[in-house]
Amino acid sequence: MTVRVGVIGAGWIGQEHIRRLTHTVTGARVTAVTDIDAARAQDAAAPVDARVLPDGAALIASAEVDAVLVTSWGPTHAEHVLNAIAAGKPVFCEKPLATTAEDCLRIVEAETAHGRRLVQVGFMRRYDTGYRQMKKVIDSGRIGEPLIVHCAHRNPAVPESYTSAMAALDTAVHEVDVLRWLLDDEIVSAQVLTPRATSRRFAHLKDPQIMLFETARGVRIDLEVFVNCQYGYDIQCETVGEEGLVRLPDPAAVGVRTAASHSTEVLTDWVGRFRDAFDTEFREWIAGVAAGDAPTGPSAWDGYAATVITAATAEALECGHVVATDLKPRPAFYGGTA
Ligand SMILES: NC(=O)c1ccc[n+]([C@@H]2O[C@H](COP(=O)([O-])OP(=O)(O)OC[C@H]3O[C@@H](n4cnc5c(N)ncnc54)[C@H](O)[C@@H]3O)[C@@H](O)[C@H]2O)c1
Ligand SMILES: O[C@H]1[C@H](O)[C@@H](O)[C@H](O)[C@@H](O)[C@H]1O
């Protein structure tokens, strides 16, 4: 069966995923595209022979759409995801699931009432080979109980529209998700320290930031978010356990020795760094939809947790104190005990 996908939002990542679904993933075809910018929708739809539909509601209702991909702006996600659940169609939503805890909970309630998982959230790091290897090592017990995690998330530069709160909401959100999954633990509090600011930033921005998280089992996480680091796109993660440590590998790159130096290239953006992870994420999602299986990737509950934890982190930046995340108990529908 070919899964016919409708795409809502044909911007940067929407276009990336349209290309991916068309040229990389087998068993999928993009049949419909919509964007509030009609010209952009047309430009994205034409090369893949997809139909342009007037809005998200029309796309979700279309008989030519089996599954929905939401890649519009964050504040619009909840409406599209809720419409897809009402239509009983599988929906893949790029992060964030929604921008408020209330909207995330509306999605959780709607999916629970539907009685079967339909929603997957686009946290692609869970599909990265290095993170998957780290998880295997942690789960095997080889490094003993995890105690501390050291992370860095560095972007070369960000535009003027990027705000200090986005360091948590837009950037650290990836670590928040992948660490909850890696450690199989919940983040219970957040704190943010602001070192001396880099001169290579727009004046309104607090950059870099050091985020400190604590999990329910007492693991401490430090995360440097530095979005004007200049030198490249660099993701680091090291988990220290009672009997050893495991470190995320850097992407494979040839070593060059010349003129009395040894160097390897550092990537410059997330598109290249996580290309393989995005490919695997979409291959697995499409295979599941084609087989009629419920999604196994990041759930609406994970989307809710990420939104709540990153909001608490942004609040911690503002107030300078430790902020409790105060997550609701995980419902049984999502593997919890509540
Ligand atoms: N997983 C990742 O690493 C990753 C990377 C980049 C972006 N994202 C997420 O993907 C989403 C899109 O980001 P982007 O960088 O592509 O943004 P973008 O601004 O390039 O594209 C968004 C597009 O959505 C359209 N749009 C907005 N509201 C709409 C609506 N209601 N209906 C139809 N179209 C609508 C806009 O016109 C625009 O073309 C964001 O939520 C972002 O956080 C995820
Ligand atoms: O939306 C992007 C994307 O999620 C990247 O993976 C992250 O490194 C950036 O900081 C963020 O702005």
UniProtKB/TrEMBL annotation:
Domain Gfo/Idh/MocA-like oxidoreductase N-terminal: 3-123
Superkingdom field: Bacteria
Xref: InterPro entries: Gfo-Idh-MocA_inositol_DH, Gfo/Idh/MocA-like_OxRdtase_C, Gfo/Idh/MocA-like_OxRdtase_N, MI/DCI_dehydrogenase, NAD(P)-bd_dom_sf
Assigned keywords, A-Z: NAD, Oxidoreductase
EC number, as in UniProt: 1.1.1.18
Domain Gfo/Idh/MocA-like oxidoreductase C-terminal as annotated: residue spans: 135-324
Any one Pfam family match given in the protein's UniProt record, by short name: GFO_IDH_MocA
Keyword Secreted part of the UniProt annotation: no
Catalysis: reaction(s): myo-inositol + NAD(+) = scyllo-inosose + NADH + H(+)
Subunit structure: Homotetramer.
Protein family per UniProt: Belongs to the Gfo/Idh/MocA family.
Described purpose of this protein according to its UniProt entry: Involved in the oxidation of myo-inositol (MI) to 2-keto-myo-inositol (2KMI or 2-inosose).
Protein name (database record): Inositol 2-dehydrogenase
Organism from which the protein derives: Streptomyces asoensis
